[in-house]
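Page header: ASSEMBLY MODEL / two components / 709 residues total.
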Amino acid sequence: MAKLSLEIGKRAEKAYYMEFPGISLSSIEELCYYICVYADYMGRDMIGEELICWIDKECGLYELSMHLSSLYRQNCSLQSFLGFTLEYVHFCDKDRIALIETCIRENQQIKASLLNKKRADYYVQVKKYHRAFELYYKLIETNLSGDHQFLANIYYNLAIVCIRLFYFDLADDYFLKAYQLFPDRNTLIARIKLKRLSEPQKEFYIEGYLEEELKEQIMEVDAFIEQVSEQFVQSREMQVIKDAFDKKKNLEMAEYYLAVREIVNDLKEDYNNQATL
Amino acid sequence: MKRDLVKEREKGIIIGVDIHREFTQISYAISPEHKIETMEISKEYEKYNIPTYLCKRKGINQWYYGRDAFKKKEEGIFLEDILFRALSNDKVWIEESEINYTELFTMYFRKILSMMAFVRGNMPIHALVITARVMNKEMVDLLLKTTREIGIHSQNVFLKSHDESLYHYVIHQPKELWEYAVGIMDFSTDHLVGYRVEVNSKTTPCVTFIHETEYPQIYIRDDFVSDMEKEIYLKKMETDFLEVSQEFTSEIIFSSIYLVGGGFTGDFYKPALSVLGRNRRVFGGNNLYSKGACLCGIETIFPSELAEKYIFLGKEKLVCNVSVLISNADEQEYLSMLDAGISWFDAKAEKIFMLGEEKQIELLITPLNHREVRRICIDLCEFNGRPEKTVRVKLNLSMCSSQTLCYKVTDLGFGDFFKPLPNTWEDCIMLD
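Prediction written out in full:
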């Protein structure tokens, strides 16, 4: 496995789009790598006749597509289908394939809603907030009559995503819904944090509570905000901004503009990454 | 009816062009069975030679080439030695514009090929084989550029050295003429060159070598100040050629000897014929290289059993196999990239590979002469840390001389997962 190898099949002229996590695949090797990387998020919705047809027509792997088609028609397990693909391409060794199959098998035992939550959580992790929002929202729509704690959890995550997208009012609504479904301290604290951070100068109130009743929690949030502020002052990002302003103060304008451009570019890149669907 | 249609579709022309500094010759065949003809442009001795001249009529965009150009020399702007100047990338001012000699050579080449129009009709060119004494990088680049500009598809163009044309000419003669060595005394340049063609029948396939010897003492001269000086020169030529013929034929058994080139005029070579023709046949000729090139084209397009039985290893040939170590399923094997026996200027290979855990490509160079096998490792450490089989690279191999192998590795990226790196990895390896 250590040496180089030839490509299997041909490069697809028409890429295959994997809804999760929004990736286009152009060769069988890319499909195999996709299986390895996202084994933890694999669901039966990822395979089907369309994928088999793509393997045949676009990758030129008729034999593999025939085997997969037969497995699919026999309603084989997802791990067998994907494991067979990895083995056919010799993408990784047998031990690794066995591990991946185990991971996929375990995933098959959890509910579809849990798998989708896992995928939405992944989007949050990689800062794809719009996609995360969509998926959490869909989960709420399909689980309205479901487990309260699960639903509260989704609302909580949805609120976090809204904060990342600067929809503070919406985030507050979702925290409230989460708290109403499953009143726990974490949600309450998160809501206070949101109120404090979005409008620091304003006085705020939380429905159903008198301000005195929340004294302890507010103190905790204030201490947290102070700690985070201190951390930010000492952070690399702040240092870069400070350095830029020092340059401006010393009238080193060329360097100042260069530093500002770098900061803006970093922010743009980060935003683009978040905004890409 | 159907068979006739198939025949019609297969009909095409195979052209062999022999390019010298001073002239060009064209031989052609309509089909493999067809007799090879050489384009005749006059009834004189050098009837096949089309001089590398161009002449432009003053004030009019009308160009003459070859002998016509020479005839119109006084009426226009006369240009000679255009091949050599094109190779040197020279430029010339013609009336009010500066023209590169490569453009002039292209015009010359287009014009000489247009002579084929009445033979060719609507037939496609199956193969255009161009042969020259030296096929170096400059010559290869010029000829490929020229044929491309004329509109001949690169897959139909083949470049061969004189050695290889000789080889094809020889092996297509009756066997008794090349049972032993074949000698060629070439006097088509300013001095005599001797070639000895030897076919080693003990190997499979039979390997043919050509040994070349230059005889600078036998040279063409026409700057005599008196008749006496000329007479002395011719007498010396006669003696020197006799000596050269004795030296050339001693210790080697020749089945036949060919005297080629415009240098064999007059009587200076006649006394040596008794030496050269002892127990063998001697031929005179002027179109051996263009015919050889044409035969080479026929052999390339319609390979006969000769192609399987004989191979030629000349100085323009790659004398080693170049392969790459790959893993196929769970086994390791060498994938052949360049095969020994091809001309260095035809040696091109391109393959796409997926890098394994080790981020490197190992080239294996196996010389045919049983010398030690060399392993060349192309280190691609920029990809260290990337999971195996997620680096897709294109490896290009080519040669810029018979001894210099060049490689170029390009990253093709891995879809949405990894964008391609902008850098390329390239180097040249000396084979000897």
